[in-house]
Known about the structure:
Blueprint: E1 3-8, E2 18-24, E3 27-34, E4 37-42, E5 56-58, E6 61-63, E7 70-72, E8 88-89, E9 91-94, E10 97-104, H1 106-111
Antiparallel strand pairs: 1-10, 2-3, 3-4, 4-8, 5-6, 6-7, 9-10
Amino acid sequence: MNKLKWHKIDTELPEEDFVKQINVDGKKLCLIKYSNEFFVVQNYCPHAGGVLSGGWCKNGHLVCPIHRWEYDLHTGRGAEGQGDYINIYPVELRSDGIYVGFKESWLKSLFGS
């Protein structure tokens, strides 16, 4: 069974909505604040490889800056007709900051990194 390994996100968190690149555990990800919710998603667009942290949010979707493809912030699904999706990572707000969870295989949890 997979379990989550939580990593604290070390970045400034503006009060207003934002889309920005973060680096966590060697991964480049996209951190989003939209309508008072935080999301962490993969940072590349599966359609054409655009950098999603250069995009923006519209109606609950992250919009890629290259071809304007859209991805639902809650499910990761692409807009109708796209036939693709982005990876969404679990986020927790804690008293000492914001955390993102990565799945860890049971083998890795047994034998370490």
